[in-house]
Amino acid sequence: MLPPLTTIEMSQSELARIAFQALLEDVQCKLPNPKGTEYVLMTSLVLRESTALSSKWTELHKREVG
């Protein structure tokens, strides 16, 4: 895509592990939790050219690392 789009990066294997865990817990549970169940999947923002902050963030990050 032009420009490259900003996206969210997530581990596909971690997503699969969490989904399997949720399915297994649902099958083994006799009564559903009335408040539901929350699962956490860590993600990270991948800034690309479609975001105006991309170039500013890259410059700032270079200064902090370098």
Pick out its properties.
12% strand; 66 residues; elongated; alpha+beta; two-stranded antiparallel sheet
Compact summary:
The chain is α+β, with helices and mostly antiparallel strands.
Whole-number mean pLDDT: 84
Total strands: 2
Report the major sheet. Answer: 2 strands, antiparallel
Number of helical segments? 2
Percent of residues in helical segments?
40-55%
Number of domains: 1
**Radius of gyration, rounded?**
19 Å
Strand fraction: 5-15%
Structural class: alpha+beta
The backbone outline, from C-alpha atoms, is elongated
Distance between the termini: 30 Å
What would you say this structure looks like, in words?
With 66 residues, the protein is of the alpha+beta class. The chain has one domain. The protein has two helices and two strands, in the order βαβα. It has a two-stranded antiparallel sheet with strand order 1-2. It is elongated. The two termini are 30 Å apart. The relative contact order is 0.23. The model has no long low-confidence stretch (mean pLDDT 84).
